[in-house]
Amino acid sequence: MPAPGTTEPTARRRGDWLRLYGWLAAILAAVLVGGYIVVAPGPPTEAELREQARLTGKKKLLIGVKDDTPGIALRDKTGAFSGFDIDIAYMIAGELGFRPEQVEFLSIETEDRARRQATDASGNFVTVDLVVATFSITPARLQDPSVGFSSPYLFTEQSVVTRADHPRVTSLGQLNGEKVCTLGTSTSENPLVESGAKVTAENKISACFEGLENHLYDAVSTDAAIMAGFVARSGGKFRHHDIGLEKTEMWGVNAGTNTALRTLVELALYRSYADPQNRMWEEAYDRHIRPLLAANPGVNVAQSTQPCVKAPEVRRWPWQRALSDDGC
After folding, report:
1. Angle 252-184-93 from CA coordinates, rounded to 5°
2. Domain housing 242
3. Which of 72, 111, 131, 225 could pair with 254 as two cysteines, CB 3.0-4.6 Å apart?
4. Which tens digit of pLDDT belongs to each residue from 138-160?
5. Predicted confidence (pLDDT) at residue 317 exceeds the cutoff of 80
């Protein structure tokens, strides 16, 4: 069975070929009557960007992902990965020209996402091509020269999870003095410290939930989309609290310093957003996030529509079908 989100958009490609034939006929006619075809300089083509991104001839695309987050990115006992981020990664890889079997997922820790250092099966550090790992776009990270973010591919927000018998939490201030676990170097850490919570930062969110279940922590706080799967799997042991923060967490893909690759990732997300025939993002959401909502009532787990993506600066040939980014 092919990996989710990897079906070729054949209808779009068939239409492109028909338009190509039409333009080739027009060019031939112009040449036959002594006409001239002038190609004006402009932004690079998709093929030129692939060459610049060093993808031409590349056999494997290495992608850093989380491995312990149900619904988002989880590795099972066989080593297979599944989740929303995994489907998005496959979708992008397909647009870059890689088949599912040419994509290799490597586990990456929260603190290593900026430098794209994942670990292989032997525990060795490996520099990956892309990071698709619940990586929030922030002003500070945008200033990091080693980080090259795409447009956001998911909107979520910070929330709080406690054991089921904990009183309702409506603000971080109510966690003052309580033992709260979060992910180290995540965007959730500073607001918790400012609220007066006794914060412990773990490398893996699964460690936070193990500690919560074993009464080492009173609460866990990070992005709602990260925690929703743990709540859904808990059998009623955990309670998810919406704390009404105005800040939106915007997850982006990190392509590092490879600007051509970042543009190609942007093009993949743009096609997913602007092409009504492309349902890969919606299918990923329906497959992995929507089933979590019933177990997380009253919590804004994640926006159910793909965030807007503007058309990147890529030359579109006249025979290629135009898409619209209206609504951005």
Report:
1. 30
2. 158-247
3. 131
4. 999 999 999 999 999 999 999 99
5. no
